[in-house]
TrEMBL record:
It comes from the Eukaryota. This is Transmembrane protein. Keywords: Membrane, Transmembrane, Transmembrane helix. The chain crosses the membrane at residues 82-110, 116-142.
Length: 174
């Protein structure tokens, strides 16, 4: 932010702070809609409240003026300290820039690559799930085929044992 923008911003804030008591003193004087009905049991407001509203800006101006008088030496001291600290502030600003630049570049790269990261992550998870299901299904089918093959071999072996050759040459086979 340039010094001109800073001066404009500080001036706008000072104007708003100066006009705030005037805003408080004039709010509520114009009614919005019909006046509220006051019950008979309440007491009437004191008549000095309108006088206080009229005096409030002047009463608030006194502390503001005292503060301005007291802070005058502080403003001079602050400007002197600011001028003396300018080289240090500039050096620290450049060091901060050199440190923050790689971090900003890293954050920009992370923000740019985040959609790719999400896409690859979902693709990997989908591949794991589908691949796991397919591998599991294939292993199940192979297991069923092996069980059927073993049963067929067992039946064939039982049939072979029932044949006469096996009974005659039992000692040779066992």
């Amino acid at each position: 932010m340039s010094s001109r923008e800073t001066v404009i911003l500080v001036g706008a804030l000072a104007t708003a702070a100066a006009l705030f008591p005037a805003y408080l003193s004039f709010t509520g004087k114009e009614g919005h809609g019909p006046a509220p009905v006051v019950p008979l049991a309440t007491t009437a407001p004191p008549s000095n409240s309108n006088a206080f509203r009229a005096i409030a800006p002047y009463l608030l101006a006194v502390p503001r003026a005292l503060f301005a008088i007291i802070s005058k030496p502080l403003r001079i001291l602050a400007s002197s300290v600011a001028l003396a600290a300018t080289p240090l502030v500039i050096v620290l600003d450049k060091i901060l820039f050199l440190v923050a630049l790689p971090i900003r570049a890293l954050l920009a790269a992370i923000r740019a690559l985040y959609p790719l990261y999400v896409f690859c992550g979902s693709a990997v998870l989908t591949g794991l799930i589908l691949g796991g299901l397919i591998v599991g299904w294939i292993k199940f089918i192979l297991l069923v085929q092996e069980v059927r093959r073993n049963r067929a071999e067992l039946e064939e072996h039982k049939q072979w044992k029932k044949r006469g050759d096996y009974i005659r040459h039992r000692d040779d086979f066992d």
